[in-house]
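SAMPLE LOG
Freezer: B-3
Tube label: C17
Construct: single chain, 203 aa
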Amino acid sequence: MITKNNHAKQYRNIPLLLSLRAHFTHSLTSAVELAKKTKSPKHIVFAEKLLKIKRAAPDTHLESLTRYKEYLCCPSRMHEKRIREDKYQHLAEQLNRVKQIRLFLDGSLPTEETPEHPVDTLRRAINQHLTQAYNNTPRVYAIKASISAISQNIGRKKRAVNVESSTHLSTDIHAIIDAGKPLGDIANRVIDFKVYHRLNSQP
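STRUCTURE (predicted):
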């Protein structure tokens, strides 16, 4: 029989188990759950760093699909990529809610909503335009995931990704869509951008 004391002890052990999974297996889900339970700034920062690392991983499969036209042979991998990116987006939203709670607890919650970063605004516009033009096919999800990874590299590399370079990329992608060109042209433009900014060497 589970007593109240045993139940309380099990509950106290949950953060420890989550911490072990987050730090030793690099489980992003456990890192976010740990941040949700403890609201600790240290745990929130760790979860944010782990999310950026996961999202910024090089999208070498996208390159193989466009350069060597292996898309039709690998639909399952594209489906997995879509599921993974949807999961990252869901966890990012949970983490943002935890950050807002932490700000409230610290008494520093802003009275007005924090303005969206210009790069995030550009990415959202591209995603909407891609969906309107090509629907949400697995290949479109792959491009969206790659663009999302690019936005995580603001100022991290020598050839830094910034608002100006992101605006040029956004303008080019919108122009390709408006011209009715194949989706592969957009994928190749994204790859060229990543090669120039040396993003494919990201761990």
